[in-house]
Each structure stands twice: as structure tokens, then as C-alpha cells.
Amino acid sequence: MEACNCIEPQWPADELLMKYQYISDFFIALAYFSIPLELIYFVKKSAVFPYRWVLVQFGAFIVLCGATHLINLWTFTTHSRTVAVVMTTAKILTAVVSCATALMLVHIIPDLLSVKTREVFLKNKAAELDREMGLIRTQEETGRHVRMLTHEIRSTLDRHTILKTTLVELGRTLSLEECALWMPTRTGLELQLSYTLHHQNPVGFTVPIQLPMINQVFSTNRAVKISPSSPVARLRPSGKYMPGEVVAVRVPLLHLSNFQINDWPELSTKRYALMVLMLPSDSARQWHVHELELVEVVADQVAVALSHAAILEESMRARDLLMQQNVALDLARREAETAVRARNDFLAVMNHEMRTPMHAIIALSSLLQETELTPEQRLMVETILKSSNLLAALINDVLDLSKLEDGSLQLDMGTFNLHALFREVLNLIKPIASVKKLSITLSLSSDLPEYAIGDEKRLMQVLLNVVGNAVKFSKEGSISITAFVAKSEYLRDPRAPEFFPVPSDNHFYLRIQVKDTGLGINPQDIPKLFTKFAQSQPLTTKNSSGGGLGLAICKRFVNLMEGQIWIESEGLGKGSTAFFIVKLGIPGHSNESRLPFVPKVPGNHMPTNFSGLKIVVMDDNSVGRMVTKGLLMHLGCDVLAVGSADECVRVVTPEHKVVFLDASVPGADTCEVAVRLHEKFSKRLDRPFIVALTGNTDRMVKENCSRVGMDGVVLKPISVDKMRSVLSELLEHGFLAESQ
Amino acid sequence: MELNRLQRSFLEYTAALFREGFLDSQFSQLYQLQDESNPEFVVEVVSLFFDDSERLINDLSRALDQTNVDFKKIDAHVHQLKGSSSSIGAQRVKNSCVSFRNFCEVQNIEGCLSCLQQVQQEYLLIKNKLEALFQLEKQIVAAGGAINTVEWML
């Protein structure tokens, strides 16, 4: 600022110059006054500006300068001393303020500079934040894409769809030019192009798996940039343009066997597929990190989805296999059932068939024996008789055993004389034993009851078999038979620890020991003794018979009698002992109402004269009706034969004592008649006995009959004797104990 | 003697019938029911059987000829035939009835037809044989003898 030292201007000398100075001063003054006003205005407006004091100083400085220039206006003309004084004051003040301001500025300028740097710093920070925001946004985008891709991939369980979808979605998300998947072949030595994005039907390109580049990709789970000229990236005939960047990533192919329940695998599988992604050729795009991460995540997801698909396939296959096996099993079961049924039918028919001719042979040959024969002829006939007896016994054994195995054999329980049974067995065996010069002793304990309830015939069969074996296999010495009531200590067979027989009031356990001094048995052979058809030694004895079934049948019978049978021997040449225990009922204590206490009376006791006994026979078969009627008439009865259920109910009167219902008619009719007869004759005394005649001794039939209140069931064919005993039993006891 | 020869041939004939399975023990039971009060029992029963069987066999042929075969009815007929044949001991007839019923159960028409044929055959056979037997019997009775059945022991 130039010092305004103009004290005495010469007005008349340069009027123009004077005028211009005058005007300039005026404007300077104006400006000097308005600038502070503006400053004040703006300071007032902005609350931020921290240097108010400086501004005030500056303002004062400017104001004073302006004042100075203003006062200068008056100094152009002659002026009084006041003006000169004011002017001087103004100038002095101005000088003071401007110096103060100058001093002040020295302090202020560094501050101002630092403000500037801070501003720059903040701007940088803002730019950084922006960048980071951008990054997060792109990551979020990527995440969204991954989720969407995963969703697409995992929404299907079909292998091909999974892979195809992967490629499509990846292509879309990353705007790829081409995307391909190479799967390892069965041999594992090559990679085969399996899926591509744009080629519809990839021709079978293959690439050997041992390329270094491929190994490099397989060795890391990251996406790896590969050269566009590598064989896996050359999917089209090379074009004219620059191929874009190519990235490859491995896709682990997990096998089911990799999944153990307790121990997740660490992807230690050896099989990988290769996914190759190509950016569009002409763009200058580069693979960004987030895109690579996306690709890696997708590859993992694909692996999981594929394994799920594999598991599903496996489980479907297992289920199909199971169904097939079920079908096969069902078929086998049905075949087995058919076979069993066929066998049973066969047996049912053959039962009678086989016995009949045998009996014919036996009967006729014994008849023949009684005629006049030459000695040779007699010998021949005796041989025939012996052989046929053997054969008959064998047939019976086989049929019995089959019945036993079926489980359809039931014991014929009845009361019998135990002592007498032993005596009879002894009598039967004595002749043979004496021929072989063997002595037999029988000792029955004193507490053995005289009568017992059980299957007499079969018990005798078992005893005979065992004793017979003892005799058969002993060349010399003695055989001792001991029988006693088994107490608990004796009941436990060391070989059968699970056998816990408990005698009670109603039954006891009979224990029989047959000891012989015969050939003995090799301890190794003992287990085989009771198996069918197993002969323990080469039978050099000539009179061996039975074909090895005897002991097996005995075992079955004994088991049916809830007992045990076993043989002990110390070895060859040291003899053997057979033990068996059977459960027998005690007569007089029976709590089984189906077993009446009826000692078997000898057959001649039966009344043979039923004359006048009124009987009704119902049979819808005319021939059968006639036969049954004839049978009963032969026994002297007064028979009325009817052919239908209605007629039967109508015709029966209290005078009739027995009604025979032929149950060949399938099921319902006979039961219906029984029910109606019960209704008709409410008083027990009036009602005749109702007996069913049937060819079928099924348990069901018997149960049905007893359910509708029949008094008995008789098995056809009925002989005269059978009918006789049925009638006498009915009249004596009022019911039939067991089916005759 | 003539009577002896006749009796022997009777015995042989019946033995053959039993052996070949034409008859079973039920037939011999029938003879046991024949007594003074009922001297023609066996012949009567057998004639009844013949009539019954012929009727049933005709019914069966007719039933199997239908377009809609009623297996239930056929089964009922066969059941009847089985019953009658077992009542007199015509074993082979009875057995063929058994297989007939099996085919009925599975509704196999061819099987049924072949069984019907078999039944017919067996029936005709047993009819012939029984008629021959009765002829022999008549001759024996005419020659003054009697049938000795107790020793059939079947």
C-alpha cells in the first residue's frame, strides 16, 4: 500500500489528475468499507470459522484504511486543522492495526496450512472407504450368486442336471464364453469332455490325466489360471481372435465309501473332475479374485451335490434289490409251501396206498402158509413174509416220521398199566435174547405207579426200539432195564442243561435206563445216533433193519412226551447205556377234562347187540348213506337215513339215541344241524348224541365240532368193529373220548 | 372141484383187484354188512353207486362243456363222486376225484377235462370188474357155495 503522504495537492495545477485520484479514493474507501461488512456477514453465517479474532483485526485494518482514504477526500482542498488531526489519527490507528495484523498472521499461517493437510487426509480416507464399500458390495453380489447357484444345483438330485445347471449358471453369472467339465474315465487314466455350455454334444475328446498342468490344478483346491492353449481349453477349432483368460478348478468326486459315520473324510479321494471356465475372448476382462472365489465355492458345492445324487442312486438301487429279493423270497416261500402241501397230499394219499398192498401181501402170504406146500415153497413163502413184514415196518416208520416232522402227530393219551407194559416188552424180547444167550433183568422201583396216563403204544415202541437195539448190538452178556420215578436231581441231563423238568401233582417223570454189555459206541458217533438214516457202524450183523430211523423216531416221540433221550458209552467194546425220561400223567389227579379216567377195558366187554337202537343218519351222498345205514342195520339198529340238513332236523325225535352227520359236506351244514338240534332239544336228556363222520382229522374240524356241541368225531372209513365200539362208548360214557 | 376152482378164481380175482388198487378195505367191509337180513346188500350198494356215478359223470361233462364253467358246481359233483367211491372202496376212482378237485381249485379247464376222462375210464374199469366179480359170485352161489370173505384180512 503506498503511503498516502499527499499533504498538499495543487488543485489548480492538475485538475484531471486530481479528479481521478478523487474518484479512485472514493471507490477504494467504498470497497474498504464493504469488504469487512461482507466478511462479518459470512462469519456470522458460518459457525465453523475459528479465526474470528483475526477477522476482526483484518476488518478493523480495512475499515481504518478505508477511513483514511475517505478522509483523504477532504484533503484535496484546503482543509482545517481538525481534518488534518483526524487524518493523522486515522493513519496512526491504521498503522497500529496493520502491524498487529501482520504479527498475528505469522501465528496463523501454519494453522491454516495444517487445516489444508487435514482436508487432504480426509479426502483420501473417504476415497478409501468408497473403495472398500465397493468391495463389500461385490462380495455380497458374489455371495448372492453363489447362493443362487447352489440353490439351483442342489435343487435336483439328478447327476446330469446338476452338472449342466452348474455350467449354465456359472456361465450366466460370470458371463463366460465357454464352460466345460472334464470327467475322469473308468480307467482313471484320462479325462473325458463330458459337458459343455455351448456345444450340444461334446464329441469324446479325451486328455490324459497325467499332464503337469492338470496335476497342478488337482493339487490345490483353488482355482488356477491356465494357459488358453492347453489341451483342456481348446474346445473349438482355434479362432482368429484372442482367447480370453481361462481358469480351471478341480471338483472332487466323492464316493459313498468315503462317508463313515463317525469320521468325515478330508476329501482324501483320488478322483477329481476338471472344470474349465473361459472369459469372452474379445473383452479385456480379467479374472477378479471374487470371481475365482465364487468358482471355488461352486466347485465344492457341486461335489456335495454330486455325492448326494450318488447316495440317492445307491439307495434306490438298494431298494430295488431289496424288492427283487423280497419277490424272490416270496416265490421261494410259496414254492416251499406248495412243495410241503404236495408232500402232505402225497403222503395222505400214499398212506393208505402203501399200506394196503403190504397188508394184502402179508395176509395172502400168511394164508398161503397155511396151505399145503413143498418145503422149498414153504421157505420161499416164509422169506416173502419176512421181507414184507420188514417192508411194512419200514413204511410205517417212514410215514410216522413224516408225520412227526410235520408236527401233525399227536399222542394218543390214555390210561394204561405201566407195569404191564414193561412185562409185555420183556416177553417180546425174551425169546430173541435167549437165542443170543443174553440175560435180561427188569427192575421197577417201588414208587412207580401202576397206572399212568400217556401214549401207551408209542411208549412201548420207544422202549422196544431201545431194548431191541441193546439186544441187537450185544453178542453176549446181559441187558438190564431199570425204571424209576425221577426226582429233581436225577432229571438234569448233563448234556441238556436247558431241560428243567418240574414234576407236579398231575404228572411225574419216568426215567428208564437200558444198559447193555455190547459193542459200545464210539464217543464221536454219539451225536449222530439220533439223526435219520445215519448208521454209526458198518453193519456186519445180518439182522440189521430199520434203515437207521428207529432212534430218530424214538427221539421224536420222547420229545413229544416232553422228555429227553440220550445214550452214553465209554467206547467201543465197553457197552452202552440208553437213558430216557418221559412225562406221564398221574391218573386220578387229572385236571384235563378231555382225558376221562377210563381204564381201557378189553374188547369183549362191549355190548354186541344194539337191537332196536334208533339212529338217524344224515348224508347227502346216496351211496355213503346206504353204506352207513347198512352198517348200522348189520349191528341191529333201527336206522332212518336222510339226505339233507332240514330233513334231519325235522325227523329227529327224542326216541332217537344217536344222530350221525356225515361231514363230507364241506363244513357249515353239519355244524348248522348240530346247533339246530341243540335248539330243538333244550333238555339234555331228550337230545340224541350227535356224532360227526369225517374223512379229515384236522384239528380244526375237531375244534369246530366240539364248539357246536357235538359229542364226538369219527374218522372214515368205519369198520364194523369201529362202529361197534363207537356206539358202545357213546352209550356207556355219553361221549367219545378221542376220535376213533 | 368146480366149486373150489370157482372159489379160488374168485379169491384170486379179488386179490388182484386189491393188489392193483382198484378196491380197498372198505369194499371188504361191505361184505361184512351182508347178512341174512340183507343178503343182496353189496350188489344193491354197488348198483346204486353205478347209477349215481353215471349221473354225476354226465353232469360233469355237461358242466365242463359250458362256455362259463361253474367250478363250484363241478367241485360239488366231484366231491359227491369222491364220497360215493370211497364209501364202496373204489379206490382208483376216488384218487382220480382227488386230483380232479385239485384242478378245480385252480380253475384249470384242461386239467379238469383230462381228469374227467380219467374218472370215466376208472369208473368203466371198476364197473366191468365188479360186474365180472358179481358174475363169479352168482356162479358160486349157483354151484352151492358161499363167499368166504373173512380171510381177506384187509
UniProtKB/TrEMBL annotation, chain A:
- Positions binding ADP in this chain are N469, A470, V471, K472, D516, K532, L551
Q: Which reaction does it catalyse?
A: ATP + protein L-histidine = ADP + protein N-phospho-L-histidine
The cross-references to Pfam families, in alphabetical order and at most eight, read: ETR1_N (PF25487), GAF (PF01590), HATPase_c (PF02518), HisKA (PF00512), Response_reg (PF00072)
Could you tell me where this protein is found in the cell? Answer: Endoplasmic reticulum membrane
Chain ranges of the Response regulatory domain: 614-731
The location annotated for the cross-link Glycyl lysine isopeptide (Lys-Gly) (interchain with G-Cter in ubiquitin) is: K716
The record's section on SUPFAM superfamilies has: ATPase domain of HSP90 chaperone/DNA topoisomerase II/histidine kinase, CheY-like, GAF domain-like, Homodimeric domain of signal transducing histidine kinase
Gene3D superfamilies, per database record: 1.10.287.130, 3.30.450.40, 3.40.50.2300, Histidine kinase-like ATPase, C-terminal domain (3.30.565.10)
Q: Does the keyword Cell membrane apply?
A: no
Source domain of life:
Eukaryota
Q: How is the cofactor bound?
A: Binds 1 copper ion per dimer.
Q: Name one GO biological process term.
A: negative regulation of ethylene-activated signaling pathway
Keyword check for ATP-binding, yes or no. yes
InterPro entries reported in the protein's UniProt record: CheY-like_superfamily (IPR011006), ETR (IPR014525), ETR1_N (IPR058544), GAF (IPR003018), GAF-like_dom_sf (IPR029016), HATPase_C_sf (IPR036890), HATPase_dom (IPR003594), His_kinase_dom (IPR005467)
Query: What GO MF annotations does this protein's record show?
Result: ATP binding; ethylene binding; ethylene receptor activity; metal ion binding; protein histidine kinase activity
Q: Which cofactor does it need?
A: Cu cation
Indicate which residues the UniProt annotation says bind Cu cation: C65, H69
The record's Gene Ontology cellular component field reads: endoplasmic reticulum membrane
The Histidine kinase domain is annotated at 349-586
Q: What is its main location?
A: endoplasmic reticulum
List of residues that carry 4-aspartylphosphate: D662
Membrane-spanning ranges: 20-41, 53-72, 92-113
Subunit structure, as described in the record: Homodimer; disulfide-linked.
Q: Which family does it belong to?
A: Belongs to the ethylene receptor family.
Q: Its biological function?
A: May act early in the ethylene signal transduction pathway, possibly as an ethylene receptor, or as a regulator of the pathway.
Q: What is the protein name given in its UniProt record? A: Ethylene receptor
Q: State the organism of origin.
A: Abeliophyllum distichum
From TrEMBL, chain B:
Q: InterPro entries given for it?
A: AHP1-5/YPD1, HPT_dom_sf, Sig_transdc_His_kin_Hpt_dom
- Cellular component terms (Gene Ontology): cytosol; nucleus
Q: Where is the HPt domain?
A: 38-143
One family from Pfam that matches here is Hpt
Q: Can you say where in the cell this protein is located?
A: Cytoplasm, Cytosol; Nucleus
Residue positions, PTM Phosphohistidine: H79
Instruction: Name its GO BP terms in alphabetical order.
Output: cytokinin-activated signaling pathway; phosphorelay signal transduction system
* Keywords on record: Cytokinin signaling pathway, Cytoplasm, Nucleus, Phosphoprotein, Two-component regulatory system
Signal peptide residues are none
Q: Which GO terms describe its molecular function?
A: histidine phosphotransfer kinase activity; protein histidine kinase binding
Q: What does this protein do?
A: Functions as a two-component phosphorelay mediators between cytokinin sensor histidine kinases and response regulators (B-type ARRs). Plays an important role in propagating cytokinin signal transduction.
Q: What does the comment on domains in this protein's record state?
A: Histidine-containing phosphotransfer domain (HPt) contains an active histidine that mediates the phosphotransfer.
Protein name, UniProt field: Histidine-containing phosphotransfer protein
Specify the species.
Answer: Abeliophyllum distichum
